[in-house]
Specification:
364 residues; four-stranded antiparallel sheet; 3 domains; alpha+beta; single chain
Length: 364
Amino acid sequence: MNALTRHISVCVISVAALVSGCTRVGEPESIFDDSPPVAIVAGKAISGEEYRRTYVDYLLDTGLPDAPERREAFLRRMVNVSLIAERERSAGIERTDAYRERARLVSSRLLVDSFVERQIYAQIEITEEDLKEMFVRANTEMTVRHLYARTIEDAERLRARLQAGETFERLAQEVFDDPQLASSGGLVGPFGFDEMDPAFEEAAFSLARGTVSEPVRTANGYSILRVEERITKPLLTETEFAERRDRLEAQVAFRRKARARAEYLAGLMTELDPVFESNTLEALAAQLLTGRPAEAETLSDQDILVRMRGGNEAWTIGDFREASERVSEEQIARIRTPRDLTTFVEGLLAREEMIRRARRSGLD
Protein backbone atom coordinates (compact mmCIF):
# COMPACT_ATOMS: atom_id res chain seq x y z
CA MET A 1 0.00 0.00 0.00
CA ASN A 2 1.57 3.32 -1.06
CA ALA A 3 1.48 6.60 0.83
CA LEU A 4 -1.35 7.93 -1.28
CA THR A 5 -3.75 5.02 -0.97
CA ARG A 6 -3.18 4.72 2.79
CA HIS A 7 -5.27 7.87 3.21
CA ILE A 8 -8.43 5.99 2.16
CA SER A 9 -9.35 4.38 5.44
CA VAL A 10 -12.64 2.80 4.39
CA CYS A 11 -15.22 2.92 1.66
CA VAL A 12 -18.54 2.81 3.51
CA ILE A 13 -20.71 2.29 0.45
CA SER A 14 -19.61 1.61 -3.10
CA VAL A 15 -20.68 3.79 -5.96
CA ALA A 16 -22.25 0.71 -7.51
CA ALA A 17 -24.52 0.47 -4.50
CA LEU A 18 -25.22 4.18 -4.60
CA VAL A 19 -26.39 4.01 -8.18
CA SER A 20 -27.85 0.51 -8.11
CA GLY A 21 -30.82 0.10 -10.36
CA CYS A 22 -29.99 3.23 -12.34
CA THR A 23 -29.99 2.39 -16.01
CA ARG A 24 -31.86 5.40 -17.36
CA VAL A 25 -30.48 8.59 -18.79
CA GLY A 26 -31.80 11.69 -17.04
CA GLU A 27 -31.75 12.14 -13.29
CA PRO A 28 -32.34 8.58 -11.97
CA GLU A 29 -34.13 8.40 -8.69
CA SER A 30 -31.43 6.97 -6.44
CA ILE A 31 -29.30 10.11 -6.52
CA PHE A 32 -32.06 11.73 -4.49
CA ASP A 33 -32.29 8.96 -1.91
CA ASP A 34 -30.71 9.22 1.53
CA SER A 35 -27.49 7.26 1.96
CA PRO A 36 -24.50 7.02 4.32
CA PRO A 37 -21.06 8.43 3.41
CA VAL A 38 -19.73 7.13 0.11
CA ALA A 39 -16.07 7.29 1.18
CA ILE A 40 -13.78 8.36 3.99
CA VAL A 41 -10.56 9.98 2.83
CA ALA A 42 -7.84 10.78 5.37
CA GLY A 43 -10.41 10.56 8.15
CA LYS A 44 -12.83 12.95 6.43
CA ALA A 45 -16.12 11.69 5.03
CA ILE A 46 -17.49 12.38 1.58
CA SER A 47 -21.15 12.19 2.47
CA GLY A 48 -23.86 10.93 0.18
CA GLU A 49 -25.46 14.38 0.32
CA GLU A 50 -22.19 16.13 -0.59
CA TYR A 51 -21.67 13.73 -3.49
CA ARG A 52 -25.21 14.14 -4.81
CA ARG A 53 -25.18 17.93 -4.51
CA THR A 54 -21.79 18.26 -6.19
CA TYR A 55 -22.66 15.78 -8.92
CA VAL A 56 -26.02 17.37 -9.74
CA ASP A 57 -24.38 20.81 -9.89
CA TYR A 58 -21.78 19.31 -12.23
CA LEU A 59 -24.52 18.05 -14.59
CA LEU A 60 -26.29 21.39 -14.55
CA ASP A 61 -23.05 23.28 -15.07
CA THR A 62 -21.78 21.15 -17.96
CA GLY A 63 -25.07 20.21 -19.61
CA LEU A 64 -23.90 16.59 -19.74
CA PRO A 65 -26.52 13.82 -19.42
CA ASP A 66 -26.53 11.60 -16.36
CA ALA A 67 -25.32 8.01 -16.71
CA PRO A 68 -24.16 5.34 -14.23
CA GLU A 69 -20.61 5.34 -15.61
CA ARG A 70 -20.44 9.15 -15.31
CA ARG A 71 -21.50 8.94 -11.65
CA GLU A 72 -18.81 6.40 -10.89
CA ALA A 73 -16.14 8.45 -12.68
CA PHE A 74 -17.24 11.58 -10.82
CA LEU A 75 -16.97 9.85 -7.44
CA ARG A 76 -13.50 8.58 -8.32
CA ARG A 77 -12.57 12.14 -9.24
CA MET A 78 -13.83 13.44 -5.88
CA VAL A 79 -11.79 10.80 -4.04
CA ASN A 80 -8.68 11.53 -6.11
CA VAL A 81 -8.99 15.27 -5.53
CA SER A 82 -9.30 14.68 -1.79
CA LEU A 83 -6.27 12.38 -1.81
CA ILE A 84 -4.13 14.81 -3.77
CA ALA A 85 -5.19 17.72 -1.56
CA GLU A 86 -4.26 15.74 1.56
CA ARG A 87 -0.90 14.78 0.13
CA GLU A 88 -0.20 18.37 -0.88
CA ARG A 89 -1.13 19.66 2.56
CA SER A 90 1.22 17.13 4.13
CA ALA A 91 4.03 18.22 1.82
CA GLY A 92 3.40 21.93 2.38
CA ILE A 93 2.50 22.43 -1.27
CA GLU A 94 -0.23 24.91 -0.34
CA ARG A 95 2.56 27.46 0.06
CA THR A 96 3.59 27.22 -3.62
CA ASP A 97 2.47 29.49 -6.48
CA ALA A 98 1.04 26.54 -8.42
CA TYR A 99 -1.17 25.60 -5.48
CA ARG A 100 -2.36 29.17 -5.04
CA GLU A 101 -3.25 29.37 -8.73
CA ARG A 102 -5.27 26.17 -8.50
CA ALA A 103 -6.97 27.46 -5.37
CA ARG A 104 -7.88 30.61 -7.29
CA LEU A 105 -9.54 28.54 -10.01
CA VAL A 106 -11.50 26.55 -7.44
CA SER A 107 -12.54 29.80 -5.79
CA SER A 108 -13.92 31.04 -9.12
CA ARG A 109 -15.98 27.88 -9.48
CA LEU A 110 -17.40 28.28 -5.98
CA LEU A 111 -18.17 31.91 -6.75
CA VAL A 112 -20.22 30.92 -9.80
CA ASP A 113 -22.00 28.23 -7.79
CA SER A 114 -22.93 30.75 -5.08
CA PHE A 115 -24.16 33.25 -7.65
CA VAL A 116 -26.30 30.66 -9.43
CA GLU A 117 -27.76 29.44 -6.14
CA ARG A 118 -28.71 32.92 -4.93
CA GLN A 119 -29.64 34.67 -8.15
CA ILE A 120 -31.25 31.85 -10.14
CA TYR A 121 -32.21 28.84 -8.04
CA ALA A 122 -33.52 30.84 -5.07
CA GLN A 123 -36.39 32.07 -7.25
CA ILE A 124 -37.69 28.56 -7.98
CA GLU A 125 -41.02 27.61 -6.44
CA ILE A 126 -42.53 24.13 -6.55
CA THR A 127 -46.28 23.75 -6.14
CA GLU A 128 -48.52 20.81 -5.37
CA GLU A 129 -49.69 20.84 -8.98
CA ASP A 130 -46.08 20.52 -10.14
CA LEU A 131 -45.65 17.39 -8.05
CA LYS A 132 -48.89 15.86 -9.31
CA GLU A 133 -47.92 16.53 -12.91
CA MET A 134 -44.56 14.84 -12.33
CA PHE A 135 -46.36 11.89 -10.70
CA VAL A 136 -48.51 11.45 -13.80
CA ARG A 137 -45.43 11.61 -16.04
CA ALA A 138 -43.73 8.96 -13.94
CA ASN A 139 -46.66 6.66 -14.73
CA THR A 140 -46.89 7.41 -18.45
CA GLU A 141 -45.36 5.78 -21.52
CA MET A 142 -45.07 7.45 -24.91
CA THR A 143 -44.29 6.58 -28.51
CA VAL A 144 -42.82 9.37 -30.63
CA ARG A 145 -41.53 9.91 -34.14
CA HIS A 146 -38.51 12.15 -34.44
CA LEU A 147 -35.97 13.48 -36.91
CA TYR A 148 -32.41 14.36 -35.94
CA ALA A 149 -30.32 17.30 -37.11
CA ARG A 150 -26.87 18.42 -36.07
CA THR A 151 -27.59 22.16 -36.38
CA ILE A 152 -30.57 24.41 -35.79
CA GLU A 153 -30.52 25.41 -39.46
CA ASP A 154 -30.85 21.79 -40.59
CA ALA A 155 -33.60 21.19 -38.03
CA GLU A 156 -35.58 24.17 -39.27
CA ARG A 157 -35.26 22.95 -42.85
CA LEU A 158 -36.57 19.52 -41.83
CA ARG A 159 -39.54 21.07 -40.07
CA ALA A 160 -40.31 23.25 -43.09
CA ARG A 161 -40.33 20.15 -45.30
CA LEU A 162 -42.75 18.44 -42.90
CA GLN A 163 -44.97 21.51 -42.97
CA ALA A 164 -44.87 21.39 -46.77
CA GLY A 165 -46.24 17.85 -46.78
CA GLU A 166 -43.24 15.50 -46.67
CA THR A 167 -43.49 12.63 -44.20
CA PHE A 168 -41.43 11.46 -41.24
CA GLU A 169 -41.04 8.14 -43.06
CA ARG A 170 -39.45 9.81 -46.08
CA LEU A 171 -37.19 12.19 -44.18
CA ALA A 172 -36.05 9.57 -41.66
CA GLN A 173 -34.41 7.67 -44.51
CA GLU A 174 -32.28 10.74 -45.20
CA VAL A 175 -31.23 11.72 -41.69
CA PHE A 176 -30.65 8.40 -39.90
CA ASP A 177 -27.78 5.98 -40.43
CA ASP A 178 -29.40 3.56 -37.99
CA PRO A 179 -31.44 1.08 -40.11
CA GLN A 180 -34.16 0.72 -37.48
CA LEU A 181 -34.79 4.46 -37.20
CA ALA A 182 -34.51 4.97 -40.95
CA SER A 183 -37.02 2.24 -41.79
CA SER A 184 -39.50 3.07 -39.01
CA GLY A 185 -39.86 6.76 -39.75
CA GLY A 186 -37.83 7.74 -36.69
CA LEU A 187 -40.11 5.82 -34.32
CA VAL A 188 -38.96 5.78 -30.68
CA GLY A 189 -40.71 4.01 -27.85
CA PRO A 190 -42.63 3.21 -25.97
CA PHE A 191 -40.47 4.97 -23.38
CA GLY A 192 -41.16 6.04 -19.84
CA PHE A 193 -40.12 8.74 -17.45
CA ASP A 194 -36.36 9.48 -17.32
CA GLU A 195 -35.53 7.17 -20.22
CA MET A 196 -34.77 9.89 -22.76
CA ASP A 197 -32.80 13.12 -23.00
CA PRO A 198 -34.55 15.52 -20.55
CA ALA A 199 -35.22 18.17 -23.23
CA PHE A 200 -36.56 15.52 -25.62
CA GLU A 201 -38.82 14.13 -22.91
CA GLU A 202 -40.04 17.59 -21.85
CA ALA A 203 -41.02 18.41 -25.42
CA ALA A 204 -42.78 15.07 -25.87
CA PHE A 205 -44.86 15.49 -22.72
CA SER A 206 -45.74 19.06 -23.68
CA LEU A 207 -46.98 18.22 -27.18
CA ALA A 208 -50.53 17.36 -28.11
CA ARG A 209 -50.81 14.05 -29.94
CA GLY A 210 -50.14 14.47 -33.67
CA THR A 211 -48.53 17.91 -33.31
CA VAL A 212 -45.11 18.54 -34.85
CA SER A 213 -42.71 20.28 -32.47
CA GLU A 214 -40.38 23.17 -33.04
CA PRO A 215 -36.69 22.14 -33.13
CA VAL A 216 -35.75 20.79 -29.69
CA ARG A 217 -32.17 21.28 -28.48
CA THR A 218 -30.85 18.06 -26.95
CA ALA A 219 -27.44 17.00 -25.68
CA ASN A 220 -26.39 15.78 -29.14
CA GLY A 221 -28.09 18.16 -31.55
CA TYR A 222 -31.70 18.96 -32.47
CA SER A 223 -34.84 16.87 -32.81
CA ILE A 224 -38.23 17.38 -34.46
CA LEU A 225 -40.91 15.37 -32.63
CA ARG A 226 -44.44 14.16 -33.17
CA VAL A 227 -46.28 12.23 -30.45
CA GLU A 228 -47.89 9.06 -31.79
CA GLU A 229 -49.23 7.55 -28.57
CA ARG A 230 -49.42 8.43 -24.88
CA ILE A 231 -50.61 5.87 -22.31
CA THR A 232 -50.98 6.67 -18.61
CA LYS A 233 -51.48 4.04 -15.93
CA PRO A 234 -55.27 4.00 -15.41
CA LEU A 235 -55.26 3.92 -11.60
CA LEU A 236 -53.06 6.33 -9.64
CA THR A 237 -53.57 6.43 -5.89
CA GLU A 238 -52.95 9.06 -3.22
CA THR A 239 -50.94 6.46 -1.30
CA GLU A 240 -48.51 6.02 -4.20
CA PHE A 241 -48.23 9.79 -4.54
CA ALA A 242 -47.47 10.23 -0.84
CA GLU A 243 -44.82 7.50 -0.91
CA ARG A 244 -43.00 9.15 -3.80
CA ARG A 245 -43.55 12.77 -2.80
CA ASP A 246 -40.01 13.58 -1.61
CA ARG A 247 -38.48 11.94 -4.65
CA LEU A 248 -40.87 13.75 -6.98
CA GLU A 249 -40.00 17.07 -5.36
CA ALA A 250 -36.28 16.45 -5.90
CA GLN A 251 -36.87 15.51 -9.53
CA VAL A 252 -38.98 18.61 -10.17
CA ALA A 253 -36.31 20.76 -8.52
CA PHE A 254 -33.60 19.25 -10.72
CA ARG A 255 -35.52 20.04 -13.89
CA ARG A 256 -36.56 23.49 -12.74
CA LYS A 257 -32.94 24.31 -11.98
CA ALA A 258 -31.86 23.18 -15.43
CA ARG A 259 -34.59 25.25 -17.07
CA ALA A 260 -33.97 28.33 -14.91
CA ARG A 261 -30.25 28.19 -15.62
CA ALA A 262 -30.84 27.85 -19.37
CA GLU A 263 -33.27 30.78 -19.39
CA TYR A 264 -30.90 32.96 -17.40
CA LEU A 265 -28.00 32.15 -19.71
CA ALA A 266 -30.12 32.87 -22.78
CA GLY A 267 -30.98 36.29 -21.38
CA LEU A 268 -27.35 36.88 -20.48
CA MET A 269 -26.21 36.10 -24.02
CA THR A 270 -28.81 38.51 -25.41
CA GLU A 271 -27.39 41.19 -23.15
CA LEU A 272 -23.76 40.42 -24.05
CA ASP A 273 -24.62 40.26 -27.78
CA PRO A 274 -21.36 38.50 -28.80
CA VAL A 275 -20.05 39.05 -32.34
CA PHE A 276 -17.14 36.81 -33.33
CA GLU A 277 -14.11 37.87 -35.34
CA SER A 278 -14.43 35.28 -38.12
CA ASN A 279 -10.74 35.06 -39.02
CA THR A 280 -9.67 34.57 -35.42
CA LEU A 281 -12.42 32.02 -34.81
CA GLU A 282 -11.46 30.05 -37.92
CA ALA A 283 -7.80 29.97 -36.90
CA LEU A 284 -8.70 28.84 -33.39
CA ALA A 285 -11.00 26.15 -34.79
CA ALA A 286 -8.21 24.92 -37.06
CA GLN A 287 -5.92 24.59 -34.07
CA LEU A 288 -8.42 22.84 -31.81
CA LEU A 289 -10.38 20.69 -34.25
CA THR A 290 -8.06 19.67 -37.06
CA GLY A 291 -4.75 19.38 -35.29
CA ARG A 292 -3.22 21.70 -37.86
CA PRO A 293 -1.45 24.38 -35.83
CA ALA A 294 -0.15 26.25 -38.89
CA GLU A 295 -3.33 28.29 -39.25
CA ALA A 296 -3.09 29.31 -35.60
CA GLU A 297 0.59 30.24 -35.54
CA THR A 298 -0.27 33.88 -36.08
CA LEU A 299 -2.69 33.93 -33.12
CA SER A 300 -1.47 35.87 -30.13
CA ASP A 301 -3.03 36.42 -26.74
CA GLN A 302 -3.88 39.97 -27.78
CA ASP A 303 -5.95 38.97 -30.83
CA ILE A 304 -9.64 39.77 -30.41
CA LEU A 305 -11.86 36.69 -30.58
CA VAL A 306 -15.25 38.24 -29.87
CA ARG A 307 -16.73 41.70 -29.34
CA MET A 308 -19.64 42.30 -26.97
CA ARG A 309 -22.24 44.91 -26.06
CA GLY A 310 -22.24 46.62 -29.41
CA GLY A 311 -18.46 46.52 -29.71
CA ASN A 312 -17.85 48.31 -26.43
CA GLU A 313 -16.14 45.27 -24.89
CA ALA A 314 -13.79 42.67 -26.35
CA TRP A 315 -12.54 39.21 -25.40
CA THR A 316 -9.14 38.08 -26.61
CA ILE A 317 -7.44 34.76 -27.32
CA GLY A 318 -5.61 35.24 -24.04
CA ASP A 319 -8.93 35.60 -22.21
CA PHE A 320 -10.16 32.43 -23.92
CA ARG A 321 -7.09 30.43 -22.93
CA GLU A 322 -7.27 31.56 -19.32
CA ALA A 323 -11.00 30.82 -19.02
CA SER A 324 -10.57 27.40 -20.68
CA GLU A 325 -8.36 26.32 -17.81
CA ARG A 326 -11.38 26.49 -15.49
CA VAL A 327 -13.45 23.86 -17.31
CA SER A 328 -13.20 20.08 -17.46
CA GLU A 329 -11.44 18.10 -20.17
CA GLU A 330 -14.75 16.35 -20.80
CA GLN A 331 -16.37 19.64 -21.81
CA ILE A 332 -13.48 20.50 -24.11
CA ALA A 333 -13.64 17.03 -25.68
CA ARG A 334 -17.21 17.73 -26.78
CA ILE A 335 -16.00 20.45 -29.16
CA ARG A 336 -16.16 18.69 -32.53
CA THR A 337 -17.32 21.37 -34.96
CA PRO A 338 -16.87 25.14 -35.39
CA ARG A 339 -20.44 25.52 -34.13
CA ASP A 340 -19.53 23.59 -30.97
CA LEU A 341 -16.57 25.92 -30.48
CA THR A 342 -18.82 28.97 -30.79
CA THR A 343 -21.20 27.52 -28.20
CA PHE A 344 -18.27 26.69 -25.91
CA VAL A 345 -16.90 30.24 -26.11
CA GLU A 346 -20.35 31.67 -25.40
CA GLY A 347 -20.51 29.46 -22.31
CA LEU A 348 -17.15 30.80 -21.15
CA LEU A 349 -18.34 34.37 -21.71
CA ALA A 350 -21.43 33.73 -19.61
CA ARG A 351 -19.35 32.14 -16.86
CA GLU A 352 -16.93 35.07 -16.71
CA GLU A 353 -19.84 37.51 -16.60
CA MET A 354 -21.39 35.61 -13.68
CA ILE A 355 -18.07 35.76 -11.83
CA ARG A 356 -18.01 39.53 -12.32
CA ARG A 357 -21.58 39.89 -11.11
CA ALA A 358 -20.92 37.67 -8.11
CA ARG A 359 -17.98 39.84 -7.08
CA ARG A 360 -20.00 43.01 -7.51
CA SER A 361 -22.63 41.43 -5.25
CA GLY A 362 -20.01 40.83 -2.57
CA LEU A 363 -20.19 37.03 -2.77
CA ASP A 364 -16.41 36.72 -2.66
